[in-house]
Amino acid sequence: MIRMTEPSKITAQSIPDHQPAAGGIAARARASVGPKYLSGLNPEQREAVETLDGPVLVLAGAGTGKTRVLTTRIAHILSQGRARPSEILSVTFTNKAAREMKHRLGLMLGHAVEGMPWLGTFHSIGGRILRTHAELAQLKSNFTVLDVDDQVRLLKQLLQAENIDDKRWPARMLAGLIDGWKNRGLMPSQVPPGEAAVFGNGKGGKLYASYQERLKILNAADFGDLLLEDIRIFREHPDILRQYQQRFKYILVDEYQDTNVAQYLWLRLLSQAPSSFTSPRVRGEVASRRDAGEGDSPSTELLETAPHPDPLPVKDGEREKSPHTKNICCVGDDDQSIYGWRGAEVDNILRFDHDFPGAKVIRLERNYRSTGHILAAASHLIAHNEGRLGKTLRTEDQDGEKVTVTGSWDSEEEARGIGEEIEQLQRQGEKLNEIAILVRASYQMREFEDRFVTLGLPYRVIGGPRFYERAEIRDALAYLRVINSPADDLAFERIVNVPKRGLGDATVQMLHDHARKRRIPLFEAARAVVETDELKPKARGSLRDVVAQFDRWRAQREITAHTDLAQIVLDESGYTEMWQKDRSADAAGRLENLKELVRSMEEFENLQGFLEHISLVMDRDGGAEDDAVSLMTLHSAKGLEFDNVFLPGWEEGLFPSQRTLDEQGRAGLEEERRLGHVGLTRARRRAKIYFATNRRIHGTWSTTIPSRFLDELPAANVEITESKGGSAWGGTGGYGASRFDDMEAFGSSYTTPGWQRAQANRSQANRNRGQATGQGRDGGGFEEAASSFSSSSSSPDFGSFSSRRRGPLTIEGELVAKSTGTTSEFSLSDRVFHQKFGYGRVTKVDGNKLTIAFDKAGEKKVVDSFVQRA
DNA sequence: TCCTATTCTTGAATT
DNA sequence: AAGAATAGGA
Fold first, then answer.
1. What is the CATH number of domain A145-218?
2. Within 7 Å: CB of A167 and strand C?
3. At the top level of CATH, which class does the domain A467-619 belong to?
4. What is the pLDDT of residues A126-179, one digit of tens each?
5. Residue ranges of chain A that CATH labels 1.10.10.160
6. Which chain B positions have some atom within 7 A of a protein CB?
7. Annotated binding site of A for ATP
8. Nearest nt to the A618 alpha carbon by C1'
9. Domain at A38-143+225-274+324-364, CATH class
10. Which nucleotide comes closest to A633 if you measure CA to C1'?
11. Which of A103, A649, A712, A861 gives the lowest tally of CB atoms within 10 Å of its CB?
């Protein structure tokens, strides 16, 4: 709990005696040696750290020490006395990244960084600013941050009020549109009329406006508002903007390529500096204020400077130049921009020096992660993109192993092959923690999971639905929200009938009418209605109990710790019981999550504080303590690294994703390619790519074509290998003259205008081929291949081929081979529980291999160590 | 109010 | 093919 108010406390070794006037001289005198924290940096990194004045863009390629530069830069600013911790604004996208920075800063400075109040995510900082000036956005400072569920529920009500068929115009779609507008910094009045009209027969714009009104009434904001309302406040109140501009002497932005327009505008407003604001002045400021204590009041001198005109909303392709920008440092990599689909504007990074004139651009191109072959492959691939700033990653590491490309007959063989390679790596002494499988689409994971369960290979899935998005967490939060603010209608509505209390739609509708007539919150309406005869006795009694319970909990709140209160609420409401009674596979996990939620409340002082931050901060960190293979999407792999990376599913349609191509055209293709680049650059020593000839897409088997990206890999760095999962190609390697056969026609045609349609036709043709009996395969290769699968006989057509895949996904021979011979502690018809498949009954015992009929998941073969007695 | 039948949808997933 | 989400009927 050390607050870093005294720069001299920062660290004994690295920070000189703090004489502001002499600080520069001292620094210069030391320049040849430099402070300790600079010593390990290469020249470019060092330049990025030491260029403190003016806008800086650091183009940090994968594995070039981006986070290190950011944290060292902060340390440098502090140690040079350029600013105090509270005067540095440092934004990231994810809580994880923010935590990581805090952690590393702590290591560098020698203690916890409690004194960096403005290091956080865009949304947490935006929210913090909004809470400070909430009244200017017609909100109270304790406003609720809505989750997507609440948002959709609210929009549904609005659609109903407008008599719009929410079948034809789903609330989710509107939520998406509004989110998109907010990402682009557009208030309701600024939405281009044409766009606003596309929803609900021209009512889109009006709905957006009334949604905003409703939010104010509910004292709520959505994620977009946390930035958008800030922007509006900054524009309408130049004095407030000026306060922040003066407070933030230095701005640092992580992952700049992922910023959307709203974030860009927000940053630019904050980064405009009053013109007399020069660095020597800053130093003086710090010095004089240090004696004055924490006070942040700006000097009169600075206030005299007229503010610069607000930036205009971004017009198409036209951005206003901001004449005076202060010390903003954005770090990013245009080649790793993979979030265009959720509003990120690669343009922000591509146009940085236009937006921030006089910007210094520093390229970090020395890669410290991957071997030569991997880096060459990744660089060669990404070089096919046109819209990029251009970097050439290089390494001093050895060439290492070539990137492998392996073809399989189908996705199951692919999974089997990868499973075997992993076991082999394991035998060679590789840590499972250093092995990752990166897929394009999450549905690819299932096959691997099935395979790993069969093999008894520990794995962990990273990503997926977020912790606080889970139904049980949101339910629990809704209870707490109603206790905290009785006017939270959305929360109340969510839980009135959870667990079931016989308060269905009819009752809720009635409450709504009542509430609207009297202009009171739902909860108060409930309290009133209970006193009348308007409800049936059963519902009435039930509702009365609910009201009484909440009254009691609210009274208890004063005298009970908030964690205890949460536990009491969950128990007394019957919510815990509801899940205890539930026999479905994930009930146990849900109860565990609830426990975790209560536990996580301890970090907050009280209920209020907890609720304010929960929607912004809640994420679960998977326990990384066990040695396990990581399984995740390419997207969630960004920022991570592993010794061994497996990249399955490099097929046209899947990767690059057909849908991206259809929707985004060339830009989409480039984003997919960047995704490939991200995938390859995650690998330190081994990168292994796979493609399958047949894959089941939405239930039907299709023949697929190797990804065009395979042809874009440099031959010199790539080795084509045999699938180890059984030779699918009759042992010939079967790739024909061109390395990836069909690719030749493709590689040359995809740049022409007609390529998209050709693409669509082709995959359509494939689908048809796959469905027609016996047509989808070439020659007899399949039969031979099939005979090596024990779970499938030589099925003559794809129809039975697919049905053959059901049931136990197991290869008998391997199971026997793996069997340890020890007898299992389980016996026939034992009731067991499995982490993933839930409850089931043992139907067969074979050594330590059990066949279990799961209640939900069907029959599976699993290793006994994966189940416990139910 | 609950249960069943039908329809829809199936890319990534922060805050 | 399968799961979720809805609508409609008992």
1. 1.10.10.160
2. yes
3. mainly alpha
4. 999 999 999 999 999 989 998 888 888 888 888 888 877 777 788 888 888 899
5. 145-218
6. 1-2, 10-15
7. 60-67
8. B15
9. alpha beta
10. B12
11. A103
